[in-house]
Amino acid sequence: MPAPTTNAAIRDRYESGLSLNDGAPDNVGTDAPANAADTVVGEDADVHVVTADGTNTVDLTNAEEAGREVTVVHDGGANTPTVAFDDADFVGTGPANMTSAGATATVKNVDGTASGWVVIATGGA
User: Does pTM top 0.85 for this prediction?
Assistant: First the structure.
């Protein structure tokens, strides 16, 4: 069976009550938040690259969609940069804080809720 057309895919998203973002794979978002500010993952991001300043906590609120996978990448930064996750967002616990450039964490939302994220994979530089 062939894959649905773009129009059919968009219609299915609309009728299912999902956001109508572009849905393009490999959509990369970048952020360089101020010291101690949250870094917000975009609703259609597949990869979120963070240039940290101090400790920045990943805010997954905009990406809460069942099945959504996001890879967060630590891109270095200033003031002993740390990219942190809030365990309240996860079923169980979230990934460990990332403290070095090149570290990654891939997370997936399993039920479309704020606390429905699980860790798929982690990696280092």
Answer: no
